[in-house]
Amino acid sequence: MRHVYECPMRWADMDLQGHVNNVVYVDYLQEARVDMLRVHARTHDQESGGLAEALVVVRHEVHYKAPLTYDFRPVSIECWVTEIRAASFTMAYEVFREEAAHQSGQPGGRRVYLRATTVLTPFVFEAERPRRVSDGERATLAAYLEDAPEWADPLRLTWESRRDPVGHYPLHVRFSDVDVYGHVNNVTYFEYFMEARILFTARLWKGLGEDGPPVQMVTARADVDYKLPILFRGEPYDAWCWLTHVGTRSMVIASEILDGDRLLARARVVMVFVDPATGRAEAPPAEVRERLLAAPGL
Questions:
Q1: What's this model's pTM, rounded to 2 decimal places?
Q2: Which residues have CB under 8 Å from 61's CB, separation 6+?
Q3: Same structural domain for residues 126 and 204?
Q4: Do 45 and 81 have their domain in common?
Q5: Count of structural domains, the chain
């Protein structure tokens, strides 16, 4: 069984291109997950309602499939469970709209904007420790259990941390980033990595564009691993970015957030260069590619 959530859209969800920002999609997933676990799962088992609030995200794998523009209609999100373990479970999502056939002859059907998976673990926040999935919770989750989809493939990369000033970003936590348990919300990590990534790429091709960035990019894939909670404080954390791969029409940026030597989170993001007029993938200008290939440590 799959749960379907009709997610309202907000005008503020849009980026400069008029598309839903890549970070906001993860917020949509959270809304759908909470709706399934707090509202619908609770009707089957009262204790299962606590899963919505007493969970931490271990990992997100997000596949961006097509740009989503603003509409007064909600966007549909299907979510289901793909695996239940002793102390964690995995959910999958598909963000879509069912489109009617167009008068021009364009066929209708489901248009998918995003697919994702999330690994979650029940958590005792008073003791700051994970716990096992209870029998009642397991029974409730099992009602939504299906096989993992074919597209749920981890982006496996060799991890070798790199520290260079061009990739450093002092990360300041805002008070509004913190949830009721005093932890930075899992969605906000995507925002932190995006901020660090934008500064990193701006430094890489500084001086190449007079009226803005010399190339337009879109996020095609983002994997985030959560290691330790980020807490609110006055002094900044350290975020680092570096390139791990440069292809003909894409690149992979790895990132970490640290507190001294303690790893708090890491991310791998696939960015695709696109033609701003058509939105199609294209090779970046030669001078941009040369700057990327000359990046420290590549």
A1: 0.91
A2: 116, 117, 118, 152, 154, 155, 221, 222, 223
A3: no
A4: yes
A5: 2
DSSP state, residue 212: S
Same structural domain for residues 36 and 119? yes
Same domain, 298 and 215: yes
Q: Which two tokens stand for residue 151?
A: 């597209």
As averages over each run of 10 residues, the pLDDT of the chain (298 residues) reads 95 91 96 88 57 86 95 96 97 92 70 96 89 90 92 72 94 95 94 97 86 85 96 97 95 97 96 91 93 88
Strands 237-246, 250-259: parallel, antiparallel or unpaired by DSSP? antiparallel
CATH number at residue 163: 3.10.129.10
At 142, the amino acid letter reads A
Domain that holds residue 148: 1-153
User: Tell me: the pLDDT tens digits for 210-262?
Assistant: 766 788 999 999 999 999 999 999 999 999 999 999 999 999 999 999 999 99
Burial annotation 158-171 (CB, 10 A radius, 16+ → b, else e):
eeeebeeebbbbeb
